[in-house]
Amino acid sequence: MELENLELSHFRNYEEASLTFQPGVNVFLGQNAQGKTNLLEAIYALALARSHRSKIDKDLIQWGENQARVSGSIKNRFGKTPLSLSWSNKGKQARVNHLDQSRLSTYIGQLNVILFAPEDLDLVKGPPATRRRFIDIEFGQMNKTYLQLSSQYKQVLKDRNAYLKAWSFGKKQDQVFLAVLTDQLIDLAAKLMLLKKKFLKELEETSKIIHKDVADQKEELALHYKTSVPMAELNDVEAVKKALEEAFQKHGDREKKQGTTLIGPHRDDFMIEVNGTDVSTFGSQGQQRTAALALKLGEIDLMYQETGEYPVLLLDDVLSELDASRQTHLLLTIENKVQTFITAPSLSEVARSLIKEPKVFLVKNGTIQVEE
């Protein structure tokens, strides 16, 4: 899969921009605050209909304008597909092949991307919410069922939490209606949790090979799914539902007092172990960075397994955060495999020696020039 071109209109600091890319490595060079990351953000938004930097859509619209638009043409084994996404006061509008999409779930997955930024190094040592978001974003691109289940789950969870919150304030509520919401949540949660378990097992398989190479065959990576019921022993929907029902019964009074749902995949996490030790707590910074790099690179092969297409890789100023050895492994892993977009103030000697014939764009004050 590759992105052939990108058109911007009133997106961030770009009034208008039109770029054509090559299948290999494309590099955006420039000093800070010139607009390099805005270009990666535009590609990310074109893929996932959201920014990775802001939850507020209007932040993407150029100051003083009423709407913003990004568009581009993707090429995969089935042919070419034009995509576009626009933001205005009326909301967000997504189009595939120039046809409006009434639901974002039908839009997401047309262009698969993996973003690796300095903050992703916190994937290992950061809070559980960081790892939950990682799973939701990456697996949602690969699997339409996961994306739909996740959306439905979040809506039922929102309704159930609102009901429990009213209960915690002493308002009399209908126990039967709460039971209906709980049953709906359990059904969706069981299916989601089994998909998460499957995803993490597959990610472990692809990542541990890369991790072992980076660590000179001296360390073994393992991922362990942490949730409110013992998923290691559960392998079918009915068994998971039964375990969840028991957990909800056990914590029912606490939920009413606290006014929130205490059980379910919205509270999940996964542990990252290296040689049997929790690397997030006891690993060195080098081990943590190696684990994060392995997980991100492992996603590339996992996406290919799940979708039949390699994703587009976005590297946002991450090379400067990696030492020469990890830079080398990263660049050799992606060589001739995935279309890659890199932002950096400048390219290191390591990168210059390993990247073959990159297409370089010079970015300054919202203007873009192709390096001759």
Map the helices and strands.
Blueprint: E1 2-11, E2 14-20, E3 25-29, H1 36-48, E4 67-76, E5 79-88, E6 91-96, E7 99-101, E8 113-116, H2 122-125, H3 128-142, H4 144-168, H5 175-214, E9 221-226, H6 237-258, E10 269-274, E11 277-278, H7 279-282, H8 285-307, E12 312-316, H9 324-334, E13 340-344, H10 349-354, E14 359-364, E15 367-370
Parallel strand pairs: 3-13, 3-14, 8-12, 12-13
Antiparallel strand pairs: 1-2, 1-4, 4-5, 5-6, 6-7, 9-10, 10-11, 14-15
If you had to describe this structure to a student in words, what would you say it looks like?
Helix 4 (144-168) crosses helix 5, helix 4 (144-168) runs parallel beside helix 6 (237-258) and helix 5 crosses helix 6 (237-258). The chain is an alpha/beta fold. 44% of the residues lie in helices and 24% in strands. The longest helix has 40 residues, at 175-214.
Give the CA-CA distance, first to last residue.
26 Å
Poorly predicted tracts of residues: none
Helix content: 40-55%
CATH architecture of the largest domain: Up-down Bundle
Order of helices and strands: EEEHEEEEEHHHHEHEEHHEHEHEE
Number of helical elements: 10
Record field, number of beta strands: 15
Taking the sheet with the most strands, its summary is: 6 strands, antiparallel
The CATH superfamily of the largest domain appears as: RecF/RecN/SMC, N-terminal domain
| Domains, number | 2
